[in-house]
Amino acid sequence: MKIAVVQEPPVYLDLAASMERAVNLVTQAASDGAKLIVFPEAWLPGYPTFCWRLSPGADMGKMDELFALTQANSIDLTRKGMAPLQEAAAENEIVVVVGYQEIDGEVSGSTLYNSCAIIDADGRIVNNHRKLMPTNPERMIWGFGDGSGLNVVDTAVGRIGALICWENYMPLARFALYAQNIDIYVAPTWDSGDSWLATMQHIAREGGCWVIGCATALEASDIPTSIPYREILFPDQDEWVNPGDAVVYKPFGGAAAGPMHREKGLLWAEIDVSASRSSRRKFDVSGHYARPDVFTLAVDRRRKEPVLFH
Asked: Is 51 considered catalytic here?
């Protein structure tokens, strides 16, 4: 099976333009034979890297303005905000995994989440996972997710699960996915570099599954001039804000494609989904290598609501 990993930037903090670009990338990947396409963390409408570049005290006003722009360009699933990408998946018969910023349209109407949707080849959203623990200054942007999205789901290309960025450093979150007969483990991220790649390879060995890691390849010159405080946030126009480092690892380790460093485009790989299960003959972390008499994990996948109306 041929897969494509996106290493192109969105149109930063412009949801409509970024969604159009995403649909075009899906169509391009499918026309070249891909059955699965993966987008990085918060690709729609762009990772809020400004939270790492502003002082939470001195720059609070700037943070508020940029948050409002991000909020206005986030996706509300209750209003069918993912519909263009769902339609593209169905029209092209391709599975799409996409990181995006989700706005809570059900309760507060305001809180944002760092989310990852798995869209099957018929256009249905078969899982939506909200990042459990935003990292450091990300907590000024995103709320905390719950366990309702910790699912590995059947798709047209096999069983897929996803954890976002540093959730992949959480061993219990990983184990929750391993214990659901996972074929393809997706890790949309903003991280890159040798330590991140080492983690991806470790997960491929630990989980006995295909692992896809991808971050947004972004240069300062990709940031539109209309973004507030652009000169303060990105003073060096030659800067690689993120080098990307998209990669695909084989079950039990070894690179199948990438890493794709400081380069834009699609990373391509050929994978044999059945290799995941057969690779676990040697080490099955949630099967014959588990010790449930010694270790057990309880996962609460109930959706947490702040208010109940009777």
From this structure: no
- Which member of 8, 51, 116, 165 is catalytic? 165
Tell me: the pLDDT tens digits for 245-281?
999 999 998 999 999 999 999 999 999 999 999 999 9
pTM beyond 0.85: yes
From the list 131, 167, 209, 250, the catalytic residue is 131
* C-alpha–C-alpha distance, residues 58 and 55, integer Å: 6
CATH number, residue 12: 3.60.110.10
Specify the number of domains making up the chain.
1
Q: Is the peptide bond before 259 cis (omega within 30 degrees of 0)?
A: yes
The position carrying tokens 């096999």 is: 158
The verdict on whether 116 is a catalytic residue reads no
Active site includes 131? yes
Average pLDDT, the chain: 97
Q: Which residues pair with 113 in a beta bridge?
A: 102
Q: pLDDT tens digits for 180-223?
A: 999 999 999 999 999 999 999 999 999 999 999 999 999 999 99
* Catalytic, out of 41, 102, 138, 167: 41
Per the structure, the complete domain to which residue 212 belongs is given by 2-279
Which DSSP letter does residue 17 get? H
pLDDT above 80 (res 51): yes
